[in-house]
Amino acid sequence: MSSIIKLKRSLTPGSAPSSLEAGELAINLPDKKIYSSNGSSVFSVSGDTYNAVTQANAAVGGADIVLTVDNDSLSNDAITLVGSGGVVVGRASNGAITVTDDGSGSAATLTNARTIGGVSFDGSSNINLPGVNAAGNQNTSGNAATATALASGVNVGGVSFDGTINITLPGVDAAGNQDTSGNAATATALETARTLGGVSFDGTSNINLPGVNADGNQDTTGNAATATALETARTIGGVSFDGTGNITLPGVNAEGNQNTTGNAATASQLNNAITIGGVSFDGSAAINLSGVNQTGNQDTTGSAATLTTSRNIGGVAFDGSADINLPGVNAAGNQNTSGTAANATLAADATKLATTRAIAVAGAVSGTANFEG
């Protein structure tokens, strides 16, 4: 008959032996756990209940997962989760650990490479684009030439433009101003160099032009100096002119008239305003002139001190620059009196009438009498 081996045992749930010999076994039947000893301490070798709880880790700003066996904490039993590179690890009030991405992290490479200008790019290194910074061409087979509207509107001179209608720009074809805060006034170089007289020029330094300020010649293969006729005839005063011969203009050097059907006689406004007496005038409205039809003064700083053209007074030239003396008036001599002063019909100091007059009389005397003064 076989022998039955019975271990030390307990029927009390949660009970554990306080001491055992090294290698000795004991069993807790309700808990289904076996215990043994290494000679100095008792330990469970089966039937343990493992548990994991979460708690905040304020020291590193993350969260811990704490492991326990039969509600007894093990040494170094915490698993710590700490966020980095845009990943935030937190612990909710119910103990749940959350891991979120706040979008502020950085990556050395893209998870999925992208194609830019036909070249694969994953961020691990720079790339060259054909037709941009390397020889080749970009694919321009899109619908830019036939599109009726831009996919996304853009601002032109501060005005939204999507290509569906015309726009007016303040300071260009409408009242207002454009933002001219760019660097055109201060730029030190042209973005794209230009060729002047066969010499490349980008604005960074002066250039010399052969045949201008340096030895050499400019290409003057045109015919401006020797042309005998205009390539396209032009009309001058209604007469065709191609340079092959002189022309006569009706109303200028030939009989006839010039076409004056323009709007000068009926224009309501001048194309360019002018200043009259210090007041701007474009013809659109009447103006008032200071010192003329309103209080004020006109600028009289011109050349009124002298006459533009000298005049003769009593045979003496007078331009207003100095007093003059008149012979027979305030100086010795005579004035030319060959005019009609002697025959004047009215004169305050005349001694004789130019024409004898008849005086009629009546009474004791009858007839007429002549009177000449």
Question: What's a concise summary of this model?
Answer:
This protein is mainly β and 373 residues long. It is built from no helices and 23 strands. Among the domains are: 8-44, no CATH class; 49-82, no CATH class.
Coarse morphology: elongated
Question: Strand order of the main beta sheet, please?
Answer: 1-2-3-4
What is the string of helix and strand elements? EEEEEEEEEEEEEEEEEEEEEEE
Share of helical residues: under 10%
The gyration radius over C-alpha positions equals 58 Å
Q: Termini, distance in Å?
A: 201 Å
Poorly predicted parts: none
Oligomeric form of this entry? single chain
* Category by helix and strand content: mainly beta
Mean pLDDT equals 79
Q: What is the number of strand segments?
A: 23
Percentage of β-strand residues: 25-35%
How large is the count of helical segments? Answer: 0
**What's the main sheet like?**
4 strands, mixed
Topology:
Elements: E1 8-10, E2 26-28, E3 33-37, E4 42-44, E5 50-57, E6 62-69, E7 72-81, E8 87-91, E9 97-101, E10 114-116, E11 119-121, E12 154-156, E13 159-161, E14 194-196, E15 199-201, E16 234-236, E17 239-241, E18 274-276, E19 279-281, E20 311-313, E21 316-318, E22 357-360, E23 368-371
Parallel strand pairs: 1-2
Antiparallel strand pairs: 2-3, 3-4, 5-6, 6-7, 8-9, 10-11, 12-13, 14-15, 16-17, 18-19, 20-21, 22-23
